[in-house]
């Protein structure tokens, strides 16, 4: 082998090793996006039933804290359906309130629930919400 070929093979090997290491360290987090083991996550539809673990992408229409408890409530537009997203204080409501703004597009994984006769998605932990359009620091 020529010197250039050896260098190319070495660089290729180093690249593949780096990718494998990254996948082993972060791959399950990236592919699961908050999935719990043993519970299948489905794309949210209007036919999703209470208790079902779902994934969806939507625009944030509004946000506010609950009057008691310090929980965060988001109103989102999911395929022309306005849904509530309930984020308990223990699931990182304060941190998410700082990072999510009205007009942001988010991806989330949560459980379909009913509260006072209306459908909502409950998010168990802040890692289950991903901001699709991070703003640049101003």
Summary of the model, kept short:
It contains two helices and seven strands.
List the helices and strands and how they pair.
Elements: H1 3-32, E1 42-43, E2 53-65, E3 72-78, E4 81-87, H2 93-99, E5 105-115, E6 118-122, E7 129-131
Parallel strand pairs: 1-2, 4-6
Antiparallel strand pairs: 2-3, 2-5, 3-4, 5-6, 5-7
How big a fraction of the residues is strand?
Answer: 25-35%
User: For the residues shown, what is the average pLDDT?
Assistant: 85
The ordered string of helix (H) and strand (E) elements is HEEEEHEEE
Structural class: alpha+beta
Instruction: Kindly report the spatial arrangement of strands forming the biggest sheet.
Output: 2-3-4-6-5
How many β-strand stretches?
7
The stretches of 5 or more residues where confidence is low (pLDDT under 50) are none
The termini sit apart by: 52 Å
Main beta-sheet annotation: 5 strands, mixed, barrel
Principal-axis shape: elongated
Helix content: 25-40%
Radius of gyration: 20 Å
Number of helices: 2
């Amino acid at each position: 082998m020529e010197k250039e070929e050896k260098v190319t093979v070495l660089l290729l090997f180093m690249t593949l090793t780096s990718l494998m290491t990254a996948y082993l360290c972060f791959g399950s987090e990236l592919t699961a996006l908050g999935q719990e083991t043993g519970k299948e996550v489905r794309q949210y539809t209007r036919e999703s039933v209470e208790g079902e673990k779902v994934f969806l992408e939507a625009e944030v229409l509004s946000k506010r804290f609950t009057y008691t408890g310090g929980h965060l409530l988001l109103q989102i537009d999911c395929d022309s359906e306005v849904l509530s997203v309930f984020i308990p204080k223990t699931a990182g409501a304060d941190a998410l309130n700082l990072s999510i703004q009205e007009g942001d597009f988010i991806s989330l994984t949560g459980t379909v629930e009913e509260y006072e006769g209306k459908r909502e998605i409950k998010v168990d932990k802040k890692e289950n919400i991903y901001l699709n359009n991070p703003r640049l620091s101003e």
